[in-house]
Design brief:
Layout lengths: L1 E5 L3 H9 L5 E3 L2 H7 L3 H11 L4 E4 L5 H12 L5 E6 L2 H12 L3 E7 L2 H9 L4 E4 L1 H5 L5 H15 L4 E4 L5 H10 L3 E4 L1 H6 L4 H17 L5
Parallel strand pairs: 1-2, 1-8, 2-3, 3-4, 4-5, 5-6, 6-7, 7-8
The chain binds erythose-4-phosphate.
The site of erythose-4-phosphate has 11 residues, from helix 7.
Length: about 220
């Protein structure tokens, strides 16, 4: 499973990138707002840092507007994936931009039917939002499993990009289901390394080692 980082904070991306943990980046209008940066400027910096796809989201609500914005965003770098919402206008824009040879990420997906439409429209990525479904007491992970089954039934090549990830548990569950990609905030990716027994075990090893009086270097 590929790891995308869900943020527009360049320092956080750089830190994880040095560990080889970044296969791509996703941004959205809220993340750009939180960064306080200009969309084109910060997106260019991210694209220069990361080799994989960097999703930049359009904000027009009509297809023509999305297509024009998508073409403009694609000028930032070769590795831009244009993000459009899962509306009929977004699907039309997806179809046009895909036929131009561009990567398209169809976002705000909350149902298997929506994911089926995105695949038919030729999306490179479909972004089902797990956390926002969980917030409504629905099973976000079930949606990932449903989409995996449907795409595998017909050999759709659209990549399942599990989004709106809120916990380290979401990451391993997405990997078990077979999501192609999971995009998570830097804090969630860091938490994946945590385990209380690791901390406890390391503490015991350090105490025992200190009592031997030895050094390795
Ligand atoms: C990424 O592509 C999505 O925009 C993001 O994961 C949404 O996450 P949120 O539901 O935590 O805002």
């Amino acid at each position: 499973m590929k790891f995308f980082v869900d943020t527009a904070e360049v320092d956080a991306i750089a830190e994880l990138n040095e560990l080889g943990m970044v296969d791509g980046v996703t941004t959205n209008p809220s993340l750009i707002m939180k960064s306080g940066r200009d969309i084109k400027e910060v997106t260019k910096e991210i694209c220069d840092l990361v080799d994989g796809p960097v999703s930049a989201e359009t904000v027009a609500l009509d297809a023509e507007g999305m297509i024009a914005e998508g073409r403009e965003l694609a000028k930032i770098a070769e590795n831009i994936a244009i993000k459009v919402p899962l509306t009929w206008a977004g699907l039309k824009a997806c179809n046009v931009l895909t036929n131009e040879g561009r990567m398209v990420n169809v976002t705000l997906c909350f149902s298997a039917n929506q994911a089926l439409l995105a695949a038919k429209a030729g999306a490179t990525f479909i972004s089902p939002f797990i956390g926002r479904l969980d917030d409504l007491n629905l099973e976000g992970l079930d949606l990932i499993a449903d989409i995996r089954e449907i795409y595998d039934n017909y050999g759709f090549e659209t990549n399942i990009l599990a989004a709106s990830i809120r916990s380290a548990n979401h990451m391993s569950e997405c990997a078990k289901i077979g999501a192609d990609v999971a995009t998570a905030p830097p804090g969630v990716i860091k938490k994946m390394a945590d385990h209380v027994l690791t901390d406890k075990g390391l503490d015991a090893f350090m105490k025992d080692w200190a009592s031997t009086g030895q050094t390795i270097l």
